Amino acid sequence: MSLEQTINADIKTAMLAKDANALTSLRAVKAAILLAKTAEGAKGELSADDETKIVQKLVKQRKDSLEIFEQQNRPDLAEKERQEITVIEKYLPAQLSRKN
Question: Least enclosed by CB within 10 Å: which of 15, 19, 48, 50?
């Protein structure tokens, strides 16, 4: 199952569970995937690497926003970003740990 199909299934689950935070995060991922698929020069399909890059970009954007909100002493907005990061990171492949 592709990431897009997984996201669509998880959106349905979040809707049934009335999980607004997860729903917002998942819709952002879905929108980013659709934009990439319909971008000029795109073939209408994304590879697994492309999907991973999109998810990584979304996480990075939220981490940057989180840092800004913390600097501006906005804990309410910072918490929202933390929650979205948690939801979106579930769709990234597991990171390899370093052994020294």
Answer: 48
- Position 83 pLDDT exceeds 80: yes
Which pLDDT band holds residue 96 (cuts at 50, 70, 90)?
low
Say whether pLDDT at 1 is over 80.
no
Burial class (CB in 10 A: 0-12, 13-18, 19+), 30: middle
pTM over 0.90: no
Q: Which domain holds residue 68?
A: 3-89
Tell me how many domains the chain contains. 1
Specify if 96 maps to a domain. no
Gap between the Cα atoms of 72 and 10, Å rounded: 33
State how far the alpha carbon of 33 is from the alpha carbons of 51, 63, 66, 98, in Å: 7, 19, 22, 31
User: Does 63 map to a domain?
Assistant: yes
